[in-house]
Amino acid sequence: MKKKRRELDRARAVVYPDRCALCGNLIPYATEICPDCRRNAPIIRGKRCFACGLPQDDCRCKGHANFYAAVTAPFFYRGVARQGIGLWKFRKAEHSVIFFAHALASCILDDFSSVSFDVITFIPQTDRERAFRGYNQGERLARAVGERLKIDVKPLLVKLYETQRQHTLPWYRRSGNIFGVFECADCAFVAGKTILLIDDIKTSGRTLNECAKMLHLADAAAVYCAVIAVA
Q1: Residue 16 pLDDT exceeds 70
Q2: pTM of the model
Q3: What are phi and psi of 105, to 5 degrees?
Q4: Which of 20, 67, 111, 115 has the greatest number of CB atoms lying within 10 Å of its CB?
Q5: Per-domain boundaries in the chain
Q6: Taking 70 as the threshold, does the pLDDT of residue 177 lie above it?
Q7: β-strand 157-159 against 182-184: which pairing, if any?
């Protein structure tokens, strides 16, 4: 059965060639990224600050207290990682989300090995945002990670109204932009749970922190965060 499936996959690759998850260029069958992207991927290595996700040598937050217990990420948000996230978010490249989910799951297993998660959730969108994008990319990523980690994925938060995009605002306006925007969708379920919150990018961390706060207000035991990349 497996041999037949491999043969079918090879035949498919002749008609629909595989593309690099980061740059989108054609790649050989059964590979995820091209040699150039593998060489240039801005991977986060060594000990990190779990308050901001950056390596300890690059950390500027000095262990600033957050509502989430820790955050981890496989990549810096720059170079081919930034290019790949854009390819996935705006072109809906399925091969990209599979690659990112694999990288994220590996990072979670390494950094949160002692944590037993009850459920995975994601940053919600308004109905208007979902209609504009056609899907919630954070939910798609969370479900792909959940498949790899064998953890259920559940929408635990709702977004109440439209906001300006966080990355378009100066840092001092970001907290106010999302204050009171989210609420817990199922407080009875959240109570006592250890939750893994998934997102694509962490810049200031305000969105992750606000969502973690709302989950704690619903009596979550702990909230951990994982993102593809940190800026």
Answers
A1: no
A2: 0.86
A3: -60, -40
A4: 20
A5: 13-230
A6: no
A7: antiparallel
